Amino acid sequence: MKKRITLCLFAFAMLIGIQNSFAQEKYKTIEESAKIESQDLTKILSLDENQTALVFRAIYSQKRFYADKLTDKNLDPKEAMALQNKADLNFKEQMLHILSEEQFAKYSAHLSSKKNQKK
Question: How many domains does the chain have?
Fold first, then answer.
């Protein structure tokens, strides 16, 4: 009986460990994606090191929010849309504070061209 309980506890611990590693992989992927996107914006907008770091944090925060909140299956679609709009507005405000007016205009143009390419 003791062996069975020990075996069950071991199996449960392994299951928790696997779930943890999947979560870490998800965040690592988000970090890599944010890093690539911030490097692209650095080239396009001629950002300095400080701006690049701030842009990276803003992008990472937005992507992590999307991964954590918007993938919740229990979330009402209207509530999800409201959360997404709030996150997008927050991201835009962060970018307005980080970028100069000229850089933000280039960033907006870049986003528009990116959206047109997807269509």
Answer: 1
